[in-house]
Amino acid sequence: MINADKPHLWKADTQASVHLYNTWFLAAAPRAYRESRAKSTADVERALDLTHDARAISAAVLKAHPEILPVLRMSTSPPLARDRIAGLAYADRGLVMALEEGHVPRRSDGTHVEEQIQRMCVVINRLLDTDLFSWLGTPEAEDHDRIRSLAATVVADRLVGSVSNPIIRNAQEQRQLSVIGEWLELRHFVRQPHPSNKPLTGMPPGTYAVRQVVVVGDELRVNIPIDVAIQPHRLRENKLPLLVEAKSAGDYTNTNKRRKEEATKIRQLRAKYGEEVKLVLFLCGYFDSGYLGYEAAEGLDWVWEHRIDDFEQAVL
Question: Which range marks the domain in which residue 178 is found?
Answer without folding.
Answer: 7-28+166-315
